[in-house]
Amino acid sequence: MLSRTSRFATLFAGLFLAFSMVAIDHAEARRGGSFGSRGTRTFQSAPPTRTAPAPTAPVERSMTPNTGVNSAARQPQASPQRPGFMSGFGGTMMRGLLIGGLIGLLLGQGFGGLAGMFGFLLQALLIGGAIMLAIRFFRSQSARGAEPALAGAGIGQASRFENRPAAQPETSTAGSFKIPGFGGGSGGGAPVADTEEITLAQSDLDAFQRLLTDVQEAFGREDHAALRRAVTPEMVSYLSEELADNAQKGLRNEVSDITLLQADIAESWREDDRDYATAALRYESRDVTRERASGKVVEGDEDHPTETTELWTFTRKNGSDWKLSAIQQA
Q1: Is the pLDDT reported for residue 79 higher than 90?
Q2: Widest Cα–Cα separation across the chain
C-alpha cells in the first residue's frame, strides 16, 4: 500500500496537471504564434531592429514548402574510425610474436627467445613510427598549400554581404499617420536567390500602419469580409480557424484602441512580380477575451491597454494594394 506521503504527492500532481490544462485552454483561445508566408524567406529569421532587437520566433505554420536543406545533412559525415594497433595487420603480428615467445619459453629456451621476440617488436615499432611521421609531414604540407585559397574565398563572400544595398524608407511626418522610428531597421539578412532589395515610399508606410488597425479590429468584430480585404487567403484561413475555435469554446476576442508606439522596417525585397516588406511593430491595445453568453472577461484587462511587439510581413503583386501575409512573435 502507498504511504500517506505518496498518496498526497500523487493527488497534488493530478491537481497541478488539471489546472495547467485549464490555463493552456484559455491561453490558446487568443490569437498568437507565428504563421503565414514570407516568400522564399519564410523560414529565415528577420534582421533585428531597434523595435525588435531580440531574435524573432520562427514561422510555425505556413503553406510555403520548406525547401531548406536539413542542417544535419549539411554536417560533415564522421570519418570511419581508424583501426587500432591491436587490430588488422599490427594486431596479427603482435599476437603472433607473443605466442611465439611463450612457446619458446615453454620449450626451455628461457628468456632468450622472449628477448629476441621483444627485439624484433622494437624494430617493428621504430619502422612503423617513422612511416607515421612521414605521412603526417606530407599531410601538413598539403593543408598549408590549401589555406590561402580558402581564406581568399571567405573574404570575398563576407564583402558581398556587407556591401549589399539596404532598404532606406523615408521617415513619416504626416500628422495622424506619423510612424515613430519607421525606417530604422537594418534591412539586412543574407541575400536570397532570385530576390532584390527595394526601397519603400511614405505611402507604403502609411498603408502598413492602416493595416495594423484594420486587421486587429476586423478580427475583434469577427468580420470575415474585412479580413479578406486586408490579408492574404492563407492568413484568412488561419484567422478564420481561430475565430471558429473561439466560437466553439463560447469565447470572443475583442481588440480595440490600437495605437502604434514604434516601428522599423526589418527588410523589404522583390520576388518576380511580388513585393514583400517585414516591419517590426510595437503597439498597445485593449485586448480581452469574453464569454459569449455572459460577456464576462476571462482573459485580459479592459481598463488597461497591453503592449505587444510583433513582426508583420506585407505583400503585394504587380503594384496592387498591400496585404498582411505573416505574423511573427518578437
Answers
A1: no
A2: 110
